[in-house]
Design goal:
Blueprint: H1 5-8, H2 13-35, H3 43-64, H4 74-94
Helix pairs in contact: 2-3
């Protein structure tokens, strides 16, 4: 039921503004129902808020004239995954080894022997 950003990118700014207005009205109705304990699915509020954010994001992109690159196909991502998994292993190989010894406790001074000096 949520709105896809790719579907919104084909719309003109006026239509996006109308969509935001309708979603805000829906959000108001959902909140009103929630306060009167009539809303059965409270996740509708979260989904509506996120849909509003999605539409506002696409609207801002259109107004700025930002071109969004299409996402790569899932097959291309799956092929790139083995290389991505090898990167952390390479980074760990060059990292300094951690010593097995425990570091000294921070903020604690070494214990001093108590001296009792009597003045006569």
């Amino acid at each position: 039921m949520s709105i896809e950003a790719n579907d919104l990118r084909g719309n003109d700014p006026d239509e996006l503004r109308r969509t935001v207005r309708k979603l805000e009205e829906d959000l108001f109705k959902h909140k009103l129902k929630k306060t009167t304990s009539q809303l059965e699915n409270t996740m509708l509020i979260r989904h509506t808020r996120r849909d509003i954010a999605r539409v506002n994001t696409v609207l801002a992109e259109k107004l700025r004239g930002v071109a969004i690159a299409p996402k790569p196909a899932p097959k291309a991502v799956a092929e790139a995954a083995p290389d991505a998994a090898a990167e952390p292993a390479k980074a760990k190989a060059g990292a300094p080894a951690k010593s097995a010894a425990k570091p000294a406790a921070k903020g604690k001074a070494p214990a001093k022997a108590k001296t009792t000096a009597k003045e006569t």
